[in-house]
Amino acid sequence: MEQKKVKDVNSRLNKVLDLIVYRRVEVDGLINYLSEYGFFTAPASSKFHLNYGGGFLDHSLNVVETLLELTSLPRFDLYPKESCVIVGLFHDVYKVTDGFKRKHYEPKFNKDGKLSKIPYKKNKGSLSKGEAYQSALIISQFVPLYEDEIQAIMVHDGLFTNEAQSIGLDWCPLAWMLHYSDFFSGIFTECPTSRLYNRENRNNKFFCRS
Ligand SMILES: [Fe+2]
Ligand SMILES: [Fe+2]
Prior knowledge:
Blueprint: H1 2-17, H2 24-35, H3 55-71, H4 81-90, E1 105-109, E2 115-122, H5 131-142, H6 147-154, H7 162-167, H8 173-189
Antiparallel strand pairs: 1-2
The structure holds fe (ii) ion (FE2) (2 copies).
One fe (ii) ion binds at residues 59, 63, 91-92, 182.
């Protein structure tokens, strides 16, 4: 099962990397760097979505795939696929490392030495402020970014973050598209037991009608 998961992730990764035309060498350099800190093994969260080894990459690919679906719609066909892959795949790289040789997550153990039911915790020694900024900084050490790509990465968590408030409401469309793809993936695609996910459980009756 775990093996199949890894195989799926690798083939999905190769498929989206094939869409990178102009910055492939730089992107490969970034993946190479991140691999040292857990690009293929980090979780997506400690106790929420995809909190297993490899969950980070699984989530990042879900975001890329959602973003590519969105951009295939006529009114959303505003950016090259390469931009969608880069912002989707790397928007959360702060979850791999803070850029100073420290991992973002570390395994969590109980007092008896056994792995906790919640298998990960944040590494208290790593930088923990301005996480979306960290992603943009780390990526830009390896891959030159367009302005819209930087904005999209910095505000991908939405309006209610310091990053979004400091940039203001004048976001580029890519920022909204990444934000939507990120949340849709995290809430619906990655939480199949969620009440929100299950269409049959949605209350689709008209208000005030029997
Ligand atoms: Fe994020
Ligand atoms: Fe994310």
